[in-house]
Every structure is written in C-alpha cells, then in structure tokens.
Write a structure and sequence with these properties.
It contains four helices and no strands. α1 runs antiparallel to α3, α1 packs parallel to α4 and α2 packs across α3. The longest helix has 25 residues. It has one domain. The protein is mainly alpha-helical.
C-alpha cells in the first residue's frame, strides 16, 4: 500500500516535470513572470524540487525504477538552468 502511494507520487512528479517543460517552451512561465515574479519563482523551483525530493525518497526507500530515474533526470537540468539564468541576470 505504501509503495503504491509512493509510486503514484513519483508518477505525479513526472507529470509535473512534463507540464513544466511545456510551460517553459511555450513561454508561459515568462508570461507568469510578467504578472507575478513570486509565482514564477515558485514554478521555476517548486516543481523540480518536488520531483527531486520525491524521486530520491522513492529511490532510497524502494527500488530503482524507470519512472523515478526519469523524474530525477528531468528535474536536475531545470535546477541547473535556473542557476545558469539567475547567474547571467546578476552580471
């Protein structure tokens, strides 16, 4: 039962990653940033951090599954991209 709930949370985190990439490539995140920079930062960092935390917990407690590894693989580049973009904007 616990593993099924954990598996569901990893799948939801993966869906959030896919939604994030869709919003990024359609410039929806930029439109949100013009309305509220706080909301933009929550989307930029919230979704990948949820994905990283969820997939790491699943990988450490249960087993290495393709869904958890995919979620982790999609989350890490988002964080690195945020670090790169925020570093460039501070120059």
């Amino acid at each position: 039962m616990i593993k099924a709930k954990a598996s569901l949370s990893v799948k939801l985190a993966l869906i959030l990653q896919i939604i994030w990439y869709f919003m990024f490539f359609t410039n929806f995140i930029g439109v949100m940033g013009s309305r509220s920079s706080l909301l933009q930062n929550i989307i930029w960092l919230g979704i990948p951090l949820v994905g990283i935390i969820t997939s790491l917990i699943y990988l450490l407690k249960f087993s290495f599954t393709r869904v958890a590894l995919t979620t982790l693989t999609l989350s890490l580049p988002i964080c690195l991209l945020w670090i790169l973009i925020s570093g460039i904007s501070k120059m």
